[in-house]
Amino acid sequence: MKTLQILDGIQNILSFFLMFFAIYQLVIWLFAYAKPIKKNKFTRKKHRFMAVISARNEEKVIAGLIQSIKAQKYPKNKIDIYVIADNCTDNTAQIAKAEGAIVYERFNQIKKSKGYALEWFFDIVLDEFPDKYDAFCVFDADNVVSPNFFEKMNDKLCEGEVIVQGYRDIKNVGDNWITANYAIFYWTMNRFYHLARYNLGLSPLINGTGFMVAMSVIKENNGWHTNTLTEDIEFSLKSIARGHKIGWAKDAVVYDEQPVGFGQSCNQRMRWSVGHIQCLKACMPELLNTKRLTAVILDTIIYTMCMPIVILSLIISCIDFIKYFAMPIRQGAMFLTGKFEFGVLFIITTILQAILVVVLEKKDFKKAWKGIITYPIFLSTWFIINVGAFFNTKMAWKQIEHVRDVKIDEIIQK
User: Fold this and answer.
1) What is the reported pTM?
2) At 280, is the secondary structure helix, strand, or coil?
3) Are 246 and 204 within 8 A, CB to CB?
4) Domains present along the chain, CATH in parentheses
5) Residue 328 and residue 288: Cα distance in Å, rounded?
6) Residue 39: pLDDT above 80?
7) Helices (H), 169-288
């Protein structure tokens, strides 16, 4: 019994941190229902943009993205499209040129990631034409963008926001249960992470693609410098530590292709999880060493704790396992019953959460239903992946093949 008491004490202490993290996130979520922030425009100008696309062997999809950028409801002479053909061995560069993009070919078999490609490209920009553009928007080659994307980003720039994330949606939601789960995950992030924090006056994060950065930020940083597997999170954390608050443009929509294979999905999510751990190590000193610890920075620090929270959860589960074998048979049976009930509650809660998100975001149930009923499985596998990330710190970036050449007109018409 003394052993059980000691284990209970340790578990209670760890559970306190877990509960604090969960309650904090739930409180933030409530602000997703607050009225949107209305900001005054400091200037009324049609800014000049770069559309920057980092692509590796994306000949099947890159034309659709370029065409959707060229079809923007924004002055055509205010957007130039740049493609970084990064270690390509196919016709990506040729297709991009034929579609009217300015192509820079990069070959580096050692530094192989989107972050390194952006670093290489912006070194060229700052050296050759640092004052030609007001801002740039970054896309992945498999994206297509809504016709008003640059118009909405221009509005944000006029409001004085210098780093802004757009609304990330999925172009292949209905392919299978995996893509539907990705869609539900991103819709949840859009509403309950980005929108909620933006409404509260905190800072969302850059989310991989479909974001805008003012050239003044790149000049301030003397280029783009990220070294982790999640260059978006690293850039976000460093920017917040240096005093920038990231904005949110819910009407600037970018549509993304997600992997259909479970193995590809696990590999991608493992990279994200390993990248989060790398960002925690790389960015936490800068966040903690800021001269003034603002609410924005404190919220960001709590966000970076998501991976340590995974370890706390694992430790609590291991303690449960030990406690079970130290219990009398009757008490052990009650213990297992309680865990079973908790598992059922988790399944019900996550399915209801998925339904809520689909309803709030006004998405198509016919495409999302496979994701709704399997969302508990998707999140459970992600927990396992997060645990595995702590033992896979030498993971390298791997390309995910994109094959869905979906045009923006096809998405809008549906």
Assistant:
1) 0.92
2) helix
3) yes
4) 1-34+49-397 (3.90.550.10)
5) 47
6) no
7) 177-188, 196-200, 215-221, 231-241, 262-288
